[in-house]
Structure formats: C-alpha cells, structure tokens
Amino acid sequence: MRIVGLMSGTSLDGVDAALVDVTGEGIDDVKASVVHAITLPYDDARRAAIHDGILAGTAEALCGLHADLGEWMAEAVVRVCREADVDLSTVDAVGSHGQKVWHRPPADGRRGATLQLGDAATIAERTGIAVVSDFRTRDIAAGGQGAPLVPWVDQLLFSLPDRARALQNIGGIGNVTRVPPRGSGEAVFAFDTGPGNALIDAAVEIATGGKLTFDRDGRLAARGTVDEPLLADLLRHPYIPAEPPKSTGREEFGRPFVMRLVELLEPEGDQDWMDLVATLTELTARTIADAYGRWLVPLGLDEVILTG
C-alpha cells in the first residue's frame, strides 16, 4: 500500500507529511519505505490560531479551527505527493493523527477524553483519498491513554534481538517507549515523561514578545543559570512521580503554566528570562531522567535513542 501519514504534535511547529510504501500484514513482516517527507510549517497566524484554541477556544473558534486544520493537512498531502512526482490517485490512504487541542487522561475511575482537530472529511474532499483518523479518540474509548500508534511503530522499526531500547521523543511533551529485545515475549511499555519543549518555547515567546518561538540550539538556556529552589519546587509536580500508564499535554504543561511562573517571578531584564529558560530546560531533562530511574532502568535498558 502507498500511504501518506500526517502528524502535527504539541510543538505546534507545523504538519509533517510522509509518503510511505508499506508491505506485509503484521509485526513480523511489515516493511515501510519512505518515498518522500516534508514539513509544512505553521506561520504566525496559524500557530496563533491553534494557541488561542487551546487556551480559550469558543465553540465557534474551535469549529473554524477544525475546518482550517483539515485544509492545512490536505495541503501537506498534496505537496508531499507533488514534490515526489506521485499522482494522488495512486495513494491508497491518508492516516491523519489530528492536532491535539485538549487531553484529559483517565483518572480516579473517570474515563479519559481527548479533542483532536483537523477535519478528515476536508482532507478526503481535497485529495480524493480515503482518510483514516481519530486514532487517539478510539484508544481513549477503549480505555487507553490516547497514544496507540507510536509504541507499535517504535517496536516495528527499532526492535533488536539482543537489546532493550528506549525511544525518547522530546516534542512539546516528552514521551518514551521501551522496546524490549525482539523475541523476548516482554510487552512494549510507553508513557509521557512530562514537559518537553512546550514550557521552554512558551517562555522564549513571552520573553521576546513573539520575535522568537523557540530557543535555537539552546543558546538562551546556555546563557542562563538554573534557579535551583524554583527547580526543586517544579519537580514536586504530582505528574512526575505518578505511576504509568499516564499521559499529559499542554493543558498541564503549556503557556498558562509559564504565565503563572512569570507572575510569581516577575522577570525584568534579559538575564532573568534566560535564567527561567535555563531552569525550564533543566526541568525537562530532569523529568526524563527521573522517569528512566523510576520505571525503565529497573526493567533493563541497553540503549536510548533520542529524538525531538
């Protein structure tokens, strides 16, 4: 089969589209070959629309954003096929994850809920291709945490017969999959480690009045000093010691989180802001390390593959 996969994560930097040829029917014989891949970056207006939807979206705003995201995702499908010189009619399906706007994980006997926007009908209409979507919502309905695909693909692509590997993604939110040695009979184990880039990006954007949206190469953090008392306080967040299975999102670790810190700290000059960025960067690193120490290393771990 020839498939276009779409992804727009919590970093809110754009839509990734991968044109992939897939053969096989199960975990033991599936092979995937990437024909072409692109990122369709969000411009300031699109990124602001998503941010506004997450922070304070009305029914009207979310309705419009759902349709707009469908158009942007369809645009990514058309572009990746055009750049690869592949006719849309030869593509068998589009897999669309959608843009996560709000996520409420299962807790205390209450089922989870998740809102993923990006109208699949619009993608199908613009491309003429069948669209498979709502992966997260189906997983939540089945009692999961809402991330059914990444662990399976991590196992498919990265399992080895003699090594246990951790696949760590540092997107807007950090998430990890422990892939056991192939043939061991152990189950794949995956969960969100906590904040990724979302807090850092928010601090940089607020500090620069929107001139910068992320800390390129960690330059600002490198010029700052970690505020150890603040870091210790942040590390007491209840999500960090919570036992997996668990998941989180920008509703927990996003711009409102940073705004509360800004109100508390009242940063004035550049150095204050760089110290905050350094502290939030250290927070991400420490939460990942903490998760490994608590839950992965005890299971056995030979190698970490870090992406983001």
UniProtKB/TrEMBL annotation:
GO BP annotations listed: amino sugar metabolic process; peptidoglycan turnover
Enzyme class of the recorded protein, top EC level: transferase
Annotated keywords: Kinase, Transferase
Recorded GO MF terms: ATP binding; kinase activity; phosphotransferase activity, alcohol group as acceptor
SUPFAM superfamilies hit by this protein: Actin-like ATPase domain
Classification via InterPro entries: Anhydro_N_Ac-Mur_kinase, ATPase_NBD
Keyword Kinase listed: yes
Name of the featured protein: Anhydro-N-acetylmuramic acid kinase
Classification of source organism: Bacteria, Pseudomonadati, Gemmatimonadota, environmental samples
